[in-house]
């Protein structure tokens, strides 16, 4: 396990009420950083998880809001800066598959304009709005952005077509933002495979899928992805514009 001393560092993590986002926020805070945790304001679990981490004596706060809306994204960043005072790391982790059963390209009727808009807004544009709102603070701190992409940006899998297209867009956005914000801000991404998280577990037997489709024959744990995110944020000082595929070798 790579460890970093993040005393006097600050971070904002979106989609932080569960899964990779929660694991990342917790790991950052336990490493000494002050962390603002974001999720939808309607998600009661955010307040619960923030309270749990505060009970550990960790420096965390909540910054709820919908990252897919430009004005809300700006307010999230403003709220985080009000609490943190500065911003070193932005983790754009918020995302959603949209449906419990993936919608393939063959199901044209189900891929409605409304569904496409929802998928693009949360899985692609949310990262843009958040980075746009935070760029001034990140430039000032010579900070870093880490985007949660998806293995579906690299390979065909069971993901909904609209979700896969949005995440592929995020892969390219990561590269474009890295170019735009260099040299003062680094921008990288991770592309997770299947994750042991609440919403992925709702799809069915992940262990069975992993045994048949993943060379390492297991699902990825949120803590493993959190470690990779923190490496890209706090380390990896000569990396920008890269997205690391971490899916147990499922692409092989």
Structure description:
The structure is a single chain. This protein is an alpha/beta fold and 252 residues long. It has helices at 19-30, 44-55, 70-84, 113-141, 161-181, 198-201, 206-213, 222-234, and strands spanning 10-13, 34-37, 60-62, 89-92, 144-148, 186-192, 243-246. Helix 1 links the parallel strand 1 (10-13) and strand 2 (34-37). Helix 1 crosses helix 8 (222-234), helix 3 runs parallel beside helix 4 (113-141) and helix 4 (113-141) packs parallel to helix 5. The chain is globular and about 50 Å long. 51% of the residues are buried.
Notable traits:
252 residues; alpha/beta; Rossmann fold; 7-stranded parallel sheet; 8 helices; 7 strands; 12% strand
Helix content: 40-55%
Q: How much of the sequence is in beta strands?
A: 5-15%
Average pLDDT level: 92
Sheet with the most strands, sense and barrel status: 7 strands, parallel
Q: Give the tally of β-strands.
A: 7
H/E topology pattern: EHEHEHEHEHEHHHE
3D shape: globular
Indicate the CATH architecture: 3-Layer(aba) Sandwich
Spatial gap, N to C terminus: 25 Å
Kindly provide the name of the CATH class: Alpha Beta
Strand order of the largest sheet: 3-2-1-4-5-6-7
List low-pLDDT spans: none
How many helices? The count is 8
How many structural domains can be distinguished in the coordinates?
1
Structural class: alpha/beta
Tell me the CATH topology.
Answer: Rossmann fold
* Rg computed from alpha carbons, rounded to a whole number of angstroms: 17 Å
Relevant CATH superfamily: NAD(P)-binding Rossmann-like Domain
């Amino acid at each position: 396990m790579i460890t970093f001393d993040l005393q006097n560092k600050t971070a904002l993590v979106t989609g932080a009420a569960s899964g990779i986002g929660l694991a990342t926020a917790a790991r950052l805070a336990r490493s000494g950083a002050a962390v603002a945790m974001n999720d939808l304001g309607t998600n009661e679990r955010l307040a619960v998880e923030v309270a749990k981490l505060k009970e550990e004596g960790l420096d965390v706060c909540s910054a709820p809001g919908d990252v897919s809306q430009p004005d809300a994204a700006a307010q999230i960043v403003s709220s985080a800066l009000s609490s943190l005072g500065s911003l070193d790391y932005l983790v754009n982790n918020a995302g959603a598959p949209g449906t419990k059963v993936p919608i393939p390209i063959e199901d044209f009727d189900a891929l409605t304009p409304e569904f496409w808009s929802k998928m693009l807004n949360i899985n692609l544009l949310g990262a843009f709005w958040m980075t746009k709102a935070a760029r001034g603070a990140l430039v000032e701190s010579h900070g870093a952005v880490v985007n949660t992409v998806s293995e579906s940006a690299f390979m065909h899998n069971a993901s909904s077509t609209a979700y896969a297209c949005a995440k592929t867009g995020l892969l390219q956005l990561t590269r474009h933002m890295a170019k735009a914000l260099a040299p003062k801000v680094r921008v990288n991404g991770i592309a997770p495979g299947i994750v042991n998280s609440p919403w992925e577990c709702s799809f069915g037997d992940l262990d069975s899928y992993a045994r048949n489709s993943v060379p390492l024959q297991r699902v990825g744990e949120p803590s493993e992805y959190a470690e990779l995110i923190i490496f890209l944020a706090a380390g990896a000082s000569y990396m920008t514009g890269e997205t690391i595929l971490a899916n147990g070798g499922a692409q092989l």
